[in-house]
Design a protein that fits this description.
Shape: globular
Helix content: 25-40%
CATH superfamily of the largest domain: Periplasmic binding protein-like II
Number of strands: 21
Oligomer: single chain
CATH class of the largest domain: Alpha Beta
Number of helices: 17
CATH architecture of the largest domain: 3-Layer(aba) Sandwich
Strand content: 15-25%
Length: about 575
Amino acid sequence: MKKISENTLLRKSLGLLLAVLFAFASLTGCSTTGKDTGADKDVTGVAAADKSTGSDNTEAAGSGEKIVNIAIAGDPSFTFDAIGDSLMVTNGLLREGLTRYGDGVLVDGLAESYEHNDDYTQWTFHLRESGWNNGEPVTADDWVYAIGAMLDGTAQLSYADFLYEIKNAREVYTKEKDVSELGVKAVDEKTLVFDLAYPVTYFPYLITHPMHFGYDREFTQQVGVDNIGTEAQYSLSNGPFYIDSWEHDNLLVFKKNPYYWNKDNIKIDQVNVYVIPDQATQVNLFLNGQLDVVDFAYQRLSAIESTGFTAATYNNGRTAYLNYNQSNQFLKNKYIKQAISAAIDRDALVNGVLHVGSPADGLIPVGLAGDGKKSFREIVGPNLPYTYDPTKAKELLNKGLAELGLSDPSDITITILASNTDEFIAVTGALQQLLKENLGINVEVETTDSTSLRARRNAYEYDVLLQSWGADWDDATNFLGGYERDASANPALFINADFNEAYHQATYSADLTERIVLLGKAEAILMEEQGVTPLYYTGQYYSVSNRISGVLRRAVVPYLDLYFTDVK
């Protein structure tokens, strides 16, 4: 008789569980917390305001305008720093940086040319003739003002370290120096100079992020910096579109900016952006012809394809991972975290749950830039020492139990917190099964809406947080930089002196290949200590209506790009 291994039995039981999870998620789309996600609401009321411009028409009634309809999950606010996934779509309509992404390559944006000095510590940009939607010209002072306002506390700033490559940025933020000493200077109206604290070979990529965008000083001071981006009349655009109207938590209407430098090559006249938190509702609206683009999880694939639409996937430059509360009595032990990593079958997650993406072998996702010739992952290779091995997982767990003075795995109880999306509901269920079967620890799951999750994350009210991070700019520093922390950081966060040193060495290297190798060393330290546990590199299913063309999806913001879109 053929012997059936423990792993085979586990995979069969996991497969059965996943089948149940798929059915549950695709039928209900609801949260395990019992919160109403709106999946059963009447979808006809959501898009009622757009009946006259529905996406089954190429033009608004009698106007001759080309209109595209999309949806985002939450109501945005267009502050200077522009953080959040919704902004990574809509901010690309409203604002433009000195450089931007074209069809797969970096191109000039509001700068028509730029150059750097020999050691990459000074970059000079020459701005083209373009205008804000109120008719005022785009000038170099827009960058001096906006970046200075974020760092000196005048305007909101979510991630100060995103700007720390600029000379004296850290010191301005900590009030050690005046904003006048910041390394952002306007030589004249159309010449902007950045002096940097260290060599930044990837600076043209870094400044595609909205935190490095300009904003008009006079307009901001007129309406008040606290009001910027909160209403249509308090929003200003130097990009291809501007906000014409905004009904909060329902609809934003973007229209073409008549003063934008490349307005003649923007083919659509209007973009209607609906605020629809529930993914099931978005899919239903797409199937009914009321949306032109929709993202969805595998659980919705059959609904898309059976209605005659074409489903596509793209690498969205994200890594899904477990983020630990390092002050948790169990999770501050590295062997427990290593055991968790070794107990997770990443192939089963990707091929049995997601059906898109690939198993993670490090924190930095596939496709992210390296030295200009090869990607980061091609240069560094796999960097995750604790991959799926149930036997090794139990050995590591026993080491951790011994250090904690425990003898029974069931003495450990942890809760995985995640957002209540189709993807994360299914993934957390699979993780719960894997960790119970392979380690014998008690794992509870809680899913909630994005607003509640963000508040709990910021307050460190979690044991394990399932989350994903996407590429704000095309470089590994965007993923690793946030882990460079000193002892003043919250104890719930990963803090490691060896990581800090490796990252610091990488930061100051101007050699393109050397810096990637050094960043790989920093990543290896993070993986050995299991500061986080990478699970998979995400991919995204999406579909586009037949009436439009030229929609771009990419791994770096903006994730949805309508710059080249046209109505057929």
